[in-house]
Amino acid sequence: MTDTVAQTSTVADTKAPPDTMAWDSGLRRLMMIYLPLGCFVLILLFPFYWMAITSFKPNAELMNYKEHNPFWISSPTLAHIKHLLFNTSYPQWLKTTMMVAIGSTTLSLIASTLAAYAIERLRFRGSPYVGLGIYLAYLVPPSILFIPLATVVVQFGLFDSPIALILVYPTFLVPFCTWLLIGYFKSIPYELEECALVDGATRLQILRRITLPLAVPGLISAGIFSFTLSWNEFIYALAFIQSGANKTVPVAILTELVTGDVYQWGALMAGSLLGSLPVAIFYSLFVDYYVSSLTGAVKE
Amino acid sequence: MSVTTLPTAALAQRQPNWIVRLFDYKPFLIAMCLAPALGLLAVFLTYPLGLGVWLAFTDTTIGRRGIFVGFENFQYLLTDPLWWNAVFYSVFYTGVATFGKFALGFWLALLLNNHFPFKSLLRAIVLLPWIVPTVLSALAFWWIYDPQFSIISYLLVDVLHWRSTNIDFLGSPWPARFSLIAANIWRGIPFVAISLLAGLQTISPSLYEAAMLDGASAWQRFRYITFPMMMPILAIVMTFSIIFTFTDFQLVYAITRGGPVNSTHLLATLAFQRGIAGGELGEGAAIAVSMIPFLVFATLFSYFGLARRKWQQGEAND
């Protein structure tokens, strides 16, 4: 097959390399690029396939590989999802997680937009150091902070309250968003702001009417990134929330659904699938923003 | 467009209003703009960091204010085999997982840097393991590593007939350690690959053209152009990766909770077990604080180690 492809390409394009070499490079390309790429995609996606297929399998098939091919479902069922939605507080957990994610994203977007504007555009003595300080804050991992933070949360009387999470998540969201937005503000021509200043606009008007509208792509990137990060956060939610109703999805699945010695894999996987879907959908809508923010932040 | 509409709006607001003038006063405006971000970080990051170091020198438990006990917690940790075990596994986990992530991630980035159809779709798919909540994909791995119904065992035993018994992934120390590392590598590849891909795309094609004119082989082009040009971004991504792998918590907590027989405890999970679950806040804080020297060392090593090599090569090439 590759042979004919190579021949047609030489006929079509007179400048193409000689026949043998084209065939060689076609096969080479297949072996060197497509084959490893296929393996990567297969391995990276397999756990999701396995998660999805487990959540629709009846228990009989789940525990019997001899009679049923484990890679496929013979009689799909919605029992696990039904169990999850009606016999557990899963909808409540989803609601809490959504609330926490939206709350902390809004809070960090406001705080980091203002901070990035001050650092990049208001230019004061020491602004690079403030920027560096905020960047260093990103390097402090939550694993070091959660024990003292738990005592701080208790002191504020916020233990076991989702508000604690909304206030704490910005500690890792603000540094990231600020750096992302500094990068975006840099790309907006300063002349636009000078024009507005000459026309007598105040600084806040400039921020609201010129800088922010032009930084919308950056704001969207920062927003989705924060939303995903707060949706996925685990250690703070595990340490600060006790009662079942206030838990976020990742914590609740692990602590409330894993019961006894026999794991209900169908329900667990259905819970994981449903908990991953919002982020996955959100992500698929904004892939380009996502990739650009990830790479932009690393390049800074 | 918005520039042309501004003067009228500005004139309307141009009354001698003291609030407006206050907000136009630069030092005040700067303070107001920085206040939310710096306030949040000071209260929930800097203060807890200091408090954590203080707690490590006290015998605080949940519900009781501790008193200063000096280095007692750390002296105790030095004699605690579980802590040494966690130190060993944290270093091992970070080392092996970082190596795996970067080797495979760099390879994937090089593959994605070629031209083929559906490239952006593939790039989007590849990032999925990194988007999905770690705990949830960890649960999927837990199920994949099930002693009885593991799909990997099924493949090896019933389909390929390479083994006669199921693999006991999480039942004994070493297989459990490597299973966790494999899950961590799986989760880390996308981030490394996409970041490095961004770096690859900034390398000017003219460098490769020049090298090809000089007759450089594919390996030589990789070794003398791609690799040195990638050094700065590699240093940054590796610093981040090492920090967040060393302090990893979710994956281990979700899959093994430190077992079997405490062989897979990372420092973070040990700190959680002692500090929050066990209530010994002082000791937990001491374990968390004991991560800091490793982190500082790893950061300096990866950042300056790689940055210096880049600088040396830059000197030699000029």
TrEMBL record, chain A:
<keyword id="KW-1003">Cell membrane</keyword>
<feature type="transmembrane region" description="Helical">
    <location>
        <begin position="131"/>
        <end position="157"/>
    </location>
</feature>
<dbReference type="GO" id="GO:0055085">
    <property type="term" value="P:transmembrane transport"/>
</dbReference>
<comment type="similarity">
    <text>Belongs to the binding-protein-dependent transport system permease family.</text>
</comment>
<dbReference type="Pfam" id="PF00528">
    <property type="entry name" value="BPD_transp_1"/>
</dbReference>
<keyword id="KW-0812">Transmembrane</keyword>
<keyword id="KW-1133">Transmembrane helix</keyword>
<dbReference type="InterPro" id="IPR035906">
    <property type="entry name" value="MetI-like_sf"/>
</dbReference>
<keyword id="KW-0472">Membrane</keyword>
<feature type="transmembrane region" description="Helical">
    <location>
        <begin position="163"/>
        <end position="185"/>
    </location>
</feature>
<protein>
    <submittedName>
        <fullName>Carbohydrate ABC transporter membrane protein 2 (CUT1 family)</fullName>
    </submittedName>
</protein>
<feature type="transmembrane region" description="Helical">
    <location>
        <begin position="31"/>
        <end position="53"/>
    </location>
</feature>
<feature type="transmembrane region" description="Helical">
    <location>
        <begin position="266"/>
        <end position="286"/>
    </location>
</feature>
<keyword id="KW-0813">Transport</keyword>
<dbReference type="InterPro" id="IPR000515">
    <property type="entry name" value="MetI-like"/>
</dbReference>
<feature type="transmembrane region" description="Helical">
    <location>
        <begin position="98"/>
        <end position="119"/>
    </location>
</feature>
<feature type="transmembrane region" description="Helical">
    <location>
        <begin position="206"/>
        <end position="228"/>
    </location>
</feature>
<feature type="domain" description="ABC transmembrane type-1">
    <location>
        <begin position="94"/>
        <end position="286"/>
    </location>
</feature>
<dbReference type="InterPro" id="IPR050901">
    <property type="entry name" value="BP-dep_ABC_trans_perm"/>
</dbReference>
<dbReference type="GO" id="GO:0005886">
    <property type="term" value="C:plasma membrane"/>
</dbReference>
From TrEMBL, chain B:
<dbReference type="InterPro" id="IPR035906">
    <property type="entry name" value="MetI-like_sf"/>
</dbReference>
<feature type="transmembrane region" description="Helical">
    <location>
        <begin position="224"/>
        <end position="246"/>
    </location>
</feature>
<dbReference type="Pfam" id="PF00528">
    <property type="entry name" value="BPD_transp_1"/>
</dbReference>
<feature type="transmembrane region" description="Helical">
    <location>
        <begin position="86"/>
        <end position="112"/>
    </location>
</feature>
<protein>
    <submittedName>
        <fullName>Carbohydrate ABC transporter membrane protein 1 (CUT1 family)</fullName>
    </submittedName>
</protein>
<feature type="transmembrane region" description="Helical">
    <location>
        <begin position="185"/>
        <end position="203"/>
    </location>
</feature>
<keyword id="KW-1003">Cell membrane</keyword>
<feature type="transmembrane region" description="Helical">
    <location>
        <begin position="124"/>
        <end position="145"/>
    </location>
</feature>
<comment type="similarity">
    <text>Belongs to the binding-protein-dependent transport system permease family.</text>
</comment>
<dbReference type="InterPro" id="IPR000515">
    <property type="entry name" value="MetI-like"/>
</dbReference>
<keyword id="KW-0812">Transmembrane</keyword>
<feature type="transmembrane region" description="Helical">
    <location>
        <begin position="28"/>
        <end position="47"/>
    </location>
</feature>
<dbReference type="GO" id="GO:0005886">
    <property type="term" value="C:plasma membrane"/>
</dbReference>
<dbReference type="GO" id="GO:0055085">
    <property type="term" value="P:transmembrane transport"/>
</dbReference>
<keyword id="KW-1133">Transmembrane helix</keyword>
<feature type="domain" description="ABC transmembrane type-1">
    <location>
        <begin position="87"/>
        <end position="304"/>
    </location>
</feature>
<feature type="transmembrane region" description="Helical">
    <location>
        <begin position="285"/>
        <end position="306"/>
    </location>
</feature>
<keyword id="KW-0472">Membrane</keyword>
<keyword id="KW-0813">Transport</keyword>
